[in-house]
Design goal:
This protein has 185 residues and is an alpha+beta fold. The chain has 7 helices and 5 strands; from the N terminus they run ααβαββαββααα. Helix content is 51%, strand content 16%.
């Protein structure tokens, strides 16, 4: 098999899709590892993944951004030993800050996009709730005034008030409570 797989699975280390001991080591130490012939020598030769897949060459490196782990790059070659060199690990380390920064930006972008979607859904739910409230508020046959407790300014009225007084809602909202009490006299 050949190809590239981007694995983002939460339970990746338990999934058997990578040599878990090796990846844990890289995460714990924050240092990259190059294995010349993983199946035949080294501290990871007994890893179940290495044994099952006959892993030969491996390079595994942390992607660090400002000292914080963003991801781990794991490359393997099962056909030939010594496919990866320490020079390639150095190059990968040089590129890792850029890759980690790109990953962090992509995660931030995804988070912002999700927050935007969530906000739009909340706004739609709020509009629907306001519409239900307005429908109920206006369908009540008794007149309802909503007043500011401090100033007694009219903040809202239902349709029954408009019908009783013969004004539109906008006209009533421009009035003061004292204007309405003067009309009643």
């Amino acid at each position: 098999e050949s190809g590239v797989a981007v694995l983002q699975e939460r339970g990746l280390l338990e999934s058997g899709m990578v040599p878990a001991d090796l990846v844990r080591h890289v995460i714990r130490t924050g240092e990259g590892v190059v294995l010349d012939d993983a199946i035949n020598a080294g501290e990871f030769a007994d890893d179940p993944y290495v044994v099952r897949h006959g892993v030969r060459s491996v390079i595994c490196s942390p992607l660090l951004n400002q000292g914080r782990l963003s991801a781990v790059v794991y490359l393997e070659n099962n056909r030939t030993p010594r496919a990866f060199t320490s020079e390639r690990l150095e190059l990968l380390n040089l590129l890792s800050a850029h890759m980690a920064l790109s990953l962090d930006k992509a995660r931030l972008y995804q988070k912002v996009r999700q927050e935007l979607v969530d906000r739009k859904q909340a706004e739609l739910a709020l509009r629907a709730s306001e519409q239900r409230f307005r429908t109920i508020f206006d369908s009540i046959s008794e007149g309802i005034f909503v007043l500011d407790a401090a100033t007694f300014a009219i903040l809202d009225v239902n349709q029954s008030v408009c019908d009783m007084l013969g004004y539109t809602r906008e006209e009533i909202l421009r009035l003061d409570v004292s204007d309405l009490s003067a009309e009643a006299d």
